[in-house]
Amino acid sequence: MNDSYIINQLAENREQYFHAVAPPIIQTSNFAYPTVDEFAYAVTHEKDEHIYTRGNNPTVNMLCQKMAALEGAEDCLMVGSGAAAITNAIMSQVSMGDHIVSVKNVYSWATRLMTNTLPRFGITTTFIDGTDINNFVETISDKTRLIYLESPISWTFEIQDLEKIAELARKKGIITIIDNSYCTALCQKPIEFGIDIIIYSATKYYNGHSDIVAGAICGSKEKMTQIFYNEYMTFGNILSPQNAWLMLRSLRTLPIRLKQSSESTLKILDFLRKSPKIDKIWYPFEESNPQIDLVNKQMKMPMGMFTVSLKNKDISSIKKFCESLQSFLIAVSWGGHESLIMPKCAFVSETDPQASMIRFYIGLEEADYIIEDLEKNLFLL
Ligand SMILES: *Cc1c(COP(=O)(O)O)cnc(C)c1O
User: Which of 79, 102, 107, 160 is the best mutation target for the ligand 1 pocket, counting ligand atoms within 8 Å of the beta carbon and taking the most?
Assistant: First the structure.
């Protein structure tokens, strides 16, 4: 299916609402039935019926259909945050006594779930360097039920060989989950490499306007139905119809937003590479990246986030540099309209070897405007 068709036409059903171009927000908690028999049928088929908005809502479902189609997946469940997507997906696949193999340095709250919460239920996790397939082979045991991936990982952007890992997992009957937030389905389709469940922080690129928190879980009809009747309905981390509508609006501009962010990022990286003030750049598409061939195989386009370290390792200078930049806000998150920086020294001690790292997200501003700002403030550094 063509992405333009998915974003603009699929699941719109305009004849049901006066041929309005924009879909309605069905702002309701429950749905009424004309007869007891129809009601009774619906209650036993909740995944396919509108009974209660914690389960299904037409505005949310329209978004689910588009998200699934963009992913090339059979089905999608939208949830109230990326963290909820992680929790629903992971907890749906493991039971007491099971073992998880996870790439190390995945999203912090996913790490927290696996190190703090799951051990209380008898589920253990081994964190490995995901760049070498042998680490997976060596760490998998009879108890391993799940492999958890994030490719690329944040800050240093190492990637994993999705095809090889999926093949290994399939052979052993192990489920694979990937956090694909950095790429979106437009840049990387893990399903094509055999990954089972794809999760997103839709707060980031998909929504893209820094005004809502949202998550998505994509996969087979069978798996999504299993999650729906268990974790999804019981945890109740739903996305509201209002926020689903905002996401539907955001999807209209997703390709053009990604294109702008991507093009600006390449220009800005060109500038930074030439700057004598920069020590190192971490970015998947750097020619010097030892994983560049795998990057080119798995990722269809360069995205808008990278990390740099400055030659000047003095923390007060780094802080001053960050605070002086006019075109960047100092904040967590990324994927919105606004360019952001996140200095590592806000998270680690000043003596940490990574303390001079700064993560950049390039938003929708003109590249020249950002470069001018960087040039001025790097010069003062
Ligand atoms: C932000 C983020 C999450 C968490 O998503 P929320 O929507 O903030 O709950 C998960 N994974 C990655 C890679 C993220 O950047």
Answer: 107
